[in-house]
Amino acid sequence: MAIALDRKAQRINEQIRISPVRVIGDDGTLYGVLETSEALQRAREAGLDLVEVAPQEKPPVCRIMDYGKFKYQQKKRQHKGHAHHGKNKELRLRPKIGDHDLMTKVNRAKEFLAEKDKVIFSVIFRGRENAHTDEGFKLVQRLTKELEEVAKLEQQPLMQGRRIVVIFAPK
User: Does domain 88-170 have CATH number 3.30.110.10?
Assistant: First the structure.
């Protein structure tokens, strides 16, 4: 049974002043509508706390539970919600890059992809290199082959001015 919690108005034990309240046991059993003092006594006998979980209801709903454990699990759940938001990492290359330098860039790209980041490769042309854009496209094909087991091609190689841009996303 999922019960919505209002974090600002969450009262426990003696802080609950409204009587009567609807009580739910720690194992999920419904005790029904009881006086607050009786509900508090049942919680104490079980060695637990009486926690108001739905103050807006008529009568308010209270649950017998271990409040410290509940707060811990709630904090853990909230912390779990923070997922890694992928970033874009750019690696720049030249068409006449050496084999070892290219492999260094590829290994760096694999690290980024392992961290769930996207990798943008830019092959930059200068001067007379602009006449040989086919060399840049060959380089991009080689990159695609090197990264095929860890990444998928998100954007096909595209000539943008003096550069070829290709984007890889983690698999």
Answer: yes
Cβ 12 vs Cβ 65: under 8 Å: no
Q: Can you list the residues of the chain whose pLDDT is less than 70?
A: 1-9, 81-84
Phi/psi at 13 (5° precision): 45, -115
In this predicted structure, what is the pLDDT of residue 90? Answer: 95
CATH architecture of 13-80: Roll (3.10)
Q: Is 28 left (phi over 0), alpha (psi -120 to 50) or beta?
A: left
Which single residue is written with the structure tokens 């040989």?
132
Q: Which of 113, 119, 117, 121 is nearest to 85 (CA)?
A: 117
